[in-house]
Amino acid sequence: MSGFDSKKTEYMLLHMIADSGHPIGAGFLADMLTSEGEEAASEATIGRYLRKLEKQGLLRSEKYNGRSRGRVITEDGARRIRELEIEQRQEKAMMDTMEIFNNGFGGHLRNLLLTREIVEPEAAALAAQNAGEEDIEAIQKIIEESARLTQSGGSMASTDAPFHIAVAKASGNPVLEAVVRMLRADRDYSPEIEHMINASSVNNPSDHKSIYRAIEARDADSARRIMKQHIHNLIVTVGQFEKERTGGHKKG
Question: Taking the model in full, what pTM does it have?
Answer without folding.
Answer: 0.61
